[in-house]
TrEMBL record:
Source taxonomy: Eukaryota, Viridiplantae, Streptophyta, Embryophyta, Tracheophyta
Cofactors, names only: Fe(2+); L-ascorbate
Record flagged with keyword Cytoplasm: no
Organism: Arabis nemorensis
Similarity comment: family membership: Belongs to the iron/ascorbate-dependent oxidoreductase family.
One Gene Ontology biological process: flavonoid biosynthetic process
Name by which UniProt lists this protein: Fe2OG dioxygenase domain-containing protein
């Protein structure tokens, strides 16, 4: 296994300037600004906040309004802050505390959990490897593991320290799985489908996988030159994100980068490519990225709800396709979709787009 330089070690080494592999291309640098200034902006579009209090209300009017709000945000933005989501706040705090404590361990201690991407062991502690033509790196380390269904987990890979990590994370995964069902129902109804349709299409209770990635973004001496995570869309069906209230998430909306505010006790939810494909582009999988800063470490906990890699062919649902709106996506398994995205990215890097 090749030793990988951790971004945390780099950040703690006292460097004043970052290695060239972390510096973004010139055309990207123009749009990277101070994240704290960006978060303060009140003008322009803001990521919607959706109150899920009434998502299963007995009162039909209240329930329908909640479904409508969720649908509107999914059609327009594809990302939102969820409040009154039903997940206990103290449980969210435990998940964050144990994740922070794990990342508070020495790099040597964390290395015991290192993944080995070259041999296909993707679960564990890692950093992005230069796998593209430009050799470009991102300013983050991470911990990645499958958290649900419980029978598919490999607890030998989970942090033993802190002692509450496994219990808190397992409990949180169970709660998120229930929340995902509620959201899938509302989004199905929003498309005029049977309530259980979307969840069935992505694998149902047995096959839908929940993968957690804790993203650790160390302080960066030159944050205006780097990104914590480069611009991408999520391949998942849904992604649920907690963070430590340090801003960094940016969404590409109507041609501009919009910085998400930090909403206390909320969960950020993204619509991923999988739902965009099934809805034939009605629900949006929005392009997003992560900024870094020099004052505060940022940590986020993303849980990706993913269909099984090869068992399901993803394509626009027949109800979403008509003469006026033909299928925008060819049939592909989830694995083929990921492969296609990587291939397309490599092609774009080899042949830079001509700018008019």
């Amino acid at each position: 296994m090749v030793a990988v330089e951790r971004v945390e070690s780099l950040a703690m080494s006292g460097i004043k300037s970052i290695p060239k592999e972390y510096i973004r291309p010139k055309e990207e640098l123009e749009s990277i600004n101070d994240v704290f200034q960006e978060e303060k902006k009140e003008d322009g579009p803001q990521v919607p906040t959706i109150d899920l209090q009434n998502i299963e209300s007995e009162d039909q009017k209240n329930r329908e309004k909640c479904v409508e709000d969720l649908k509107k945000a999914a059609l327009d933005w594809g990302v939102m802050h969820l409040i009154n989501h039903g997940i206990p706040i103290d449980l969210m705090e435990r998940v964050k505390k144990t994740g922070e404590e794990f990342f508070g361990l020495s790099v040597e201690e964390k290395e015991k959990y290192a993944n080995d991407q070259a041999s296909g062991k993707i679960q564990g502690y890692g950093s992005k490897l230069a796998n593209n033509a430009s050799g470009q790196l991102e300013w983050e380390d991470y911990f990645f593991h499958l958290v649900y269904p419980e029978d598919k987990r490999d607890l030998t890979l989970w942090p033993k320290t802190p002692s509450d990590y496994i219990e808190a994370t397992s409990e949180y995964a169970k709660c998120l799985r229930l929340l995902a069902t509620k959201v899938f129902k509302a989004l199905s109804i929003g498309l005029g489908l049977e309530p259980d349709r979307l969840e069935k299409e992505v694998g149902g209770l047995e096959e839908l996988l929940l993968q957690m990635k804790i993203n650790y973004y160390p302080k960066c001496p030159q944050p205006e030159l780097a990104l914590g995570v480069e611009a991408h869309t999520d391949v998942s069906a849904l992604t649920f994100i907690l963070h430590n209230m340090v801003p960094g998430l940016q969404l590409f909306y109507e041609g501009k980068w919009v910085t998400a505010k930090c909403v206390p006790d909320s969960i950020v939810m993204h619509i991923g490519d999988t739902l965009e494909i099934l809805s034939n582009g009605k629900y949006k999988s929005i392009l997003h990225r992560g900024l870094v800063n020099k004052e505060k470490v940022r940590i986020s906990w993303a849980v990706f709800c993913e269909p099984p890699k090869d068992k399901i062919v993803l394509k626009p649902l027949p109800e979403m396709v008509s003469d006026e709106s033909p299928a925008k996506f060819p049939p592909r398994t989830f694995a083929q979709h990921i492969e296609h995205k990587l291939f397309r990215k490599e092609q774009e890097e080899l042949v830079p787009e001509k700018k008019d």
